[in-house]
Amino acid sequence: MPALLSLDGVCKTHRRGRHANVVLDRVSFHVGVGEFAAIFGRRGAGKTTLLRIAAGLDAPDAGRVTLDGRDLLATGRRRRLDGLPDGIGWLVRSGPLTRSMPMLDFVAMPLLERVPHREARRRAGAALERATAGALVDARWPELSDAERVLVALARATVRRPALLLADDPTAGLGTREREIVLGLLREATDENEMSALITVPALPDVLRAHRVMSLSGGELMEPTRQRTGDHLVVAADRRESV
Amino acid sequence: MSLRNLLWFWWRRFPHRAKHEELFALVGIAVGVALLFAAQVSNRSLGASVAKLTDGLVGDAQLQLKARDARGFAESMIPAIERLDGIRAVAPVLEAHANVVRDGRERSVTLLAADARLAHLGGSLVRGAAAVRLDRLDAVVLPADVGRTLTAAVGETVAIQTRGRKVDAPVAAILGANHLGPLSASPIVMTSLRFAQRATGLNGRVTRLYVLAEAGQSELARSHLERFARGRLDVLPVAHDERVFAQLSMPSDSSTSLFAGISALVGFLFAFNAMLMMARERRGLIAEMRMSGFRASAVVQVILFDALVLGAGASALGIAIGNLLSKGVFEPDPGYLAIAFPIGTARVIEPATVALALGAGMLAALAAALVPLAATYRSRGPMDAIDDDGLDPGRRMLAPRRRLLLTGLGCLLATTAILAFTPAAALAGMATLVAAMLLWLGPLLGFVVTALHRFQRRLASVVPTIASGELIAASTRSMAISAIAAIAVFGTTSIEGARVDLQRGLDPNARELTEVTDVWVSPRGDANLLATSPFPARLATERIRRSPAVMSVSVYRGAFLDIGDRRTWVIAPPRDATTPVPQSQIVEGNPADATARLREGGWAVASEAVAQQLGLTVGQRFRLDSPRPATLRLAAITTNFGWSPGVLVVNADDYRTAWGDGDASALQVRLSEGTLPAAGARAVERALGPGSPYAVQTASEREAGFRATTRAGLSRLQQVAALLVVAAALAIAAGTAATVWPRRARLADLKLVGIGAGSLWRAQLLESSILVITGAAVGAAFGLYGQQLLDRALNSVTGFPVVHTLGVTSALASLGIVTAVALLVVAIPGWWATRVPASAAFDD
Amino acid sequence: MLDVCDLVKRFHTPGGETVRAVDGVSLTVRPGELVALYGPSGSGKTTLLKIVAAVIAPDRGHVLLDGRAITGLSERDAASYRLHRLGLVLQSAHMMAGLSAIENAAMKLIAAGIARDEARRRMMPVLERLGLDARADHRASSLSMGELQRLSLAKALSNDPPLLLADEPTGSLDTVRGRRVLRLLRERTRERATATVIATHDPQAARFADTVYTLRDGRLDTAGG
């Protein structure tokens, strides 16, 4: 699989007052085209930080991040001014600022920059359909259940047909069945559309649908080898060599 | 982002916006725009009225031949002028001050008379009056406003009192705005040349000749005219009157500009604070857009579009409100300007004023919208900075800073230097003084807060603890509140102090000018306040002398003479005057020598501005362009006696020679021993007979008239001071609301701890009090210094006499008022914020 | 001792529906007992805590603390109750950044009428116990998250209240620090015979409690524990 997203030797330290916390310690990995990868780790392990760096939203203290060969850090400050780089979709679980905005408009919003609004709404409708949330076009955010909100958020994050979808703990607070649906959709989306997805999860059982699983702990990213024993996954940590 | 998308996006968000804050911003900008618009309309209307009058008469003419006195020049000269090279057409005009009376009502007007030739110049006034054939009229045409004041109707008779004569005139027409436009509110009376000449007794004479030169031959025509005039008449461009008016209205203009400037500031402050309140929501919107993947340019477009719509809406609202304001509160008031010009009270709204108001409002909205934008782009990532409760972490704003104090000291020294050495640059001194004040405010505030913090050690109340906690963590906005209070008190102290000083200078001046005699007799008419309207004195003098109450009658003369663009007030006191020049008004030169020289003849006394314009020093010879040019020497330099363009005092004989006639402008009556002024005045009135065209005033009545006029002239300054207080109070309220609103989570938490809303509100009040009172006290102290600077600045701009005092009472009053108003207003957002429910502290 | 009897609280959503945030909950907390209210977000734990903190009023039911009613209090009495008889620890501590750590912690004492110097004297041992004595005079804005949470606890305990409530006390902390806070809560509960209630969705936190009440959709789950 050709690599879409590449992180090489990424380091990040958080400083607060006199404390310094090494969040990421020479983290390196690739996500291929059409690959669904998941990173799990304890709360506070640095998953969100890693994801933000992968999205080009934050700059690491050291290391390289490339998307489809483009160095995400090259244009430095200007890139960060522009928000999300081209080709990346970020699943945001918060709703629209104006609470009574219909979901169709909400999903159409990212397209408004480049596409006439009628066309934007058409594509938004299609995105909602793909996320099995077609019935929610006229719904308002406060009326939706947690699971429905995640579906809408997924539609919004994919409406621009990004090459890479990033999601930080997308299934938090959802029931088991709902989690299945969301993860299933993600898997489907990556299988059918050559879209890659990288998500973070707090616990291992959530990663059953992913192509690939990595763990982040103590600043180090590891790819566990899997051994099936009964119904559980036994995880043996294996230090991943840097490429 | 395409315009259609921008519109659609705005529309979709429209019904769901943060209504309160947007409304606040809208109203705030509208208020600022309204004030700016109203002030500008009221100001520009006066000048526009003059311009329109000129246009109305002049039409296409480029030049004018103007007499230097009220007697004008002979009509018989006109045929010769018409034959001059380069001249295509001419039209004579006769103007005279008059008083129109009907049924006990009177109005001071300018009599405007012309003949058929004026129509050929194409002036709109003539076109408007074309319904009535002016040239053979033996009646008068009144504009609607004058007609209303006199309650006259077509066909009825009014009495025209002018130059000591009285003539009855039937009213031929009353013309309204549809014929005369804004001139329908001007104090003019139109009639034919013949009739006016008969009424004034100036048979065969005119005061102006408008000249239409052949195409491209204006220069040629002008040189011919100048040769013809032989230095006895002024050859001027038709725009001359507007320039003279501009000169005359400069002090009023300056204070109105100050007013307009502060109005604009009000609008900006409001817009700014309201936009800051909306900043949180704005930042959320920006984050939402950026996380959707919008480029920076698209984000900026959306934000600016929002601001543009808000700004445009607010400006439109503001202009509508301002229009109403200018009809009611800010009616154009000619005041002292009407003495020298027939200025109407019609409102003239120029497109430039609308554009200015619109532009200011939009600019305010745009500038304020850029703040959250800039803040976002300085932060690390798109989702940052949504949660900003106004704290500047790590920045100890209130800690004393040596550098601030030293720089402030430097500014203070600069101010002192300016005051001592170049008082004319006083406005620059004000700027350095304000800088010094603001630089010192921070450390002083820090000192007060630290003192509070130490003091409340002993106290067992939670109120000062919370207040000092907030003050110590104070953000820029808290400091801004203190600064606004300081600036407001500084401004009002300086302005009110300077105004009082000006008044103190002008009042004795008024007394000195009027107390030289017991009773004054001059032609009736409010516009004749300075007694510049001439009349033949013989008959009146004889009648008055017959009264037993009268001891003597002297002839006083005065006129307006245009020296360049200055409509100079020329005074020729009676020959037997003991003090021809008020001694206290002499600024340069020996008073005793000046008096002696003036009596001698061949000498004149001029005010500073006039002397400067003619490039004179005491003792120098100069040529006066009077109707008969004369050569005089400067005996002394004075203040301008309260007439800002300037004053010139000459000997009675010199005046007679230079002006060429024996007409008086007023009669100074001395009463017999033991006669009370009021009784004497009544006696003089009886002597003159009922319905006489003269106004009889005792010296104190006349003095009161002068003082009322100067007070009216300075009233704009009072309005400026009042506006400052209002603006400051509103700004402080807005700033407090913006500071307190993000604190609600913290306040809710304190409620959870068990601290009551009452205590929280008192803590908020204490915090605000400390900020406002410290600022106000600093402002008052610096304001006293500012008063000294402003005194000198006003003196150099207006030339008015000034008495320098230290307005401590005024400072304390300003401090008290600003503090009281600010705290009253601040109580509201404070109370409203403490209404936050305790449950808000739980993370929801 | 805390008695919660048959509490019901309904909310109306913008969509027009009625949600029963708390649907007939009854429980008891004895002095010296640490109770956990366990359940996912939206199960009603926070609403229940708010009612016990006299911050919102229930639609039905009542709450008694040591025999005295906490529901149906006037604004003033509720404030007095919260000041003198309740200690509250929330997920994120809102401190006054301009005041020092000890001044923040002593806020309840000052509000109760104790002069600052005296209040400070009483708070020092508490801060010592929580390991914050070195930071006592530092501005609250310079404290780390963990220190702020501990400070919050110090403030809650400052006047030795008979009832202690904590809403997701470990929510924003990592495991190590979270455990520390929970241990402190348990120690304190034992030592001072406080009745303590923790609302949490973290199963690890629930393990520290003597009794666990599981809430689901506003009701106590009698099946679990």
UniProtKB/TrEMBL annotation, chain A:
<dbReference type="InterPro" id="IPR003439">
    <property type="entry name" value="ABC_transporter-like_ATP-bd"/>
</dbReference>
<dbReference type="GO" id="GO:0016887">
    <property type="term" value="F:ATP hydrolysis activity"/>
</dbReference>
<keyword id="KW-0067">ATP-binding</keyword>
<dbReference type="InterPro" id="IPR027417">
    <property type="entry name" value="P-loop_NTPase"/>
</dbReference>
<dbReference type="InterPro" id="IPR003593">
    <property type="entry name" value="AAA+_ATPase"/>
</dbReference>
<dbReference type="GO" id="GO:0022857">
    <property type="term" value="F:transmembrane transporter activity"/>
</dbReference>
<dbReference type="Pfam" id="PF00005">
    <property type="entry name" value="ABC_tran"/>
</dbReference>
<dbReference type="InterPro" id="IPR015854">
    <property type="entry name" value="ABC_transpr_LolD-like"/>
</dbReference>
<feature type="domain" description="ABC transporter">
    <location>
        <begin position="5"/>
        <end position="243"/>
    </location>
</feature>
<keyword id="KW-0547">Nucleotide-binding</keyword>
<dbReference type="GO" id="GO:0005524">
    <property type="term" value="F:ATP binding"/>
</dbReference>
<dbReference type="GO" id="GO:0005886">
    <property type="term" value="C:plasma membrane"/>
</dbReference>
<protein>
    <submittedName>
        <fullName>Putative ABC transport system ATP-binding protein</fullName>
    </submittedName>
</protein>
From TrEMBL, chain B:
<dbReference type="InterPro" id="IPR003838">
    <property type="entry name" value="ABC3_permease_C"/>
</dbReference>
<feature type="domain" description="ABC3 transporter permease C-terminal">
    <location>
        <begin position="258"/>
        <end position="375"/>
    </location>
</feature>
<feature type="transmembrane region" description="Helical">
    <location>
        <begin position="427"/>
        <end position="452"/>
    </location>
</feature>
<feature type="transmembrane region" description="Helical">
    <location>
        <begin position="404"/>
        <end position="421"/>
    </location>
</feature>
<feature type="transmembrane region" description="Helical">
    <location>
        <begin position="354"/>
        <end position="375"/>
    </location>
</feature>
<keyword id="KW-1003">Cell membrane</keyword>
<feature type="transmembrane region" description="Helical">
    <location>
        <begin position="258"/>
        <end position="277"/>
    </location>
</feature>
<keyword id="KW-0472">Membrane</keyword>
<comment type="similarity">
    <text>Belongs to the ABC-4 integral membrane protein family. LolC/E subfamily.</text>
</comment>
<dbReference type="Pfam" id="PF02687">
    <property type="entry name" value="FtsX"/>
</dbReference>
<feature type="transmembrane region" description="Helical">
    <location>
        <begin position="298"/>
        <end position="321"/>
    </location>
</feature>
<feature type="transmembrane region" description="Helical">
    <location>
        <begin position="806"/>
        <end position="832"/>
    </location>
</feature>
<dbReference type="Pfam" id="PF12704">
    <property type="entry name" value="MacB_PCD"/>
</dbReference>
<dbReference type="GO" id="GO:0098797">
    <property type="term" value="C:plasma membrane protein complex"/>
</dbReference>
<dbReference type="InterPro" id="IPR025857">
    <property type="entry name" value="MacB_PCD"/>
</dbReference>
TrEMBL record, chain C:
<dbReference type="GO" id="GO:0022857">
    <property type="term" value="F:transmembrane transporter activity"/>
</dbReference>
<keyword id="KW-0067">ATP-binding</keyword>
<comment type="similarity">
    <text>Belongs to the ABC transporter superfamily.</text>
</comment>
<dbReference type="GO" id="GO:0016887">
    <property type="term" value="F:ATP hydrolysis activity"/>
</dbReference>
<dbReference type="GO" id="GO:0005524">
    <property type="term" value="F:ATP binding"/>
</dbReference>
<dbReference type="InterPro" id="IPR003439">
    <property type="entry name" value="ABC_transporter-like_ATP-bd"/>
</dbReference>
<dbReference type="InterPro" id="IPR015854">
    <property type="entry name" value="ABC_transpr_LolD-like"/>
</dbReference>
<feature type="domain" description="ABC transporter">
    <location>
        <begin position="2"/>
        <end position="225"/>
    </location>
</feature>
<protein>
    <submittedName>
        <fullName>Putative ABC transport system ATP-binding protein</fullName>
    </submittedName>
</protein>
<dbReference type="InterPro" id="IPR003593">
    <property type="entry name" value="AAA+_ATPase"/>
</dbReference>
<dbReference type="InterPro" id="IPR027417">
    <property type="entry name" value="P-loop_NTPase"/>
</dbReference>
<dbReference type="GO" id="GO:0005886">
    <property type="term" value="C:plasma membrane"/>
</dbReference>
<keyword id="KW-0547">Nucleotide-binding</keyword>
<dbReference type="Pfam" id="PF00005">
    <property type="entry name" value="ABC_tran"/>
</dbReference>
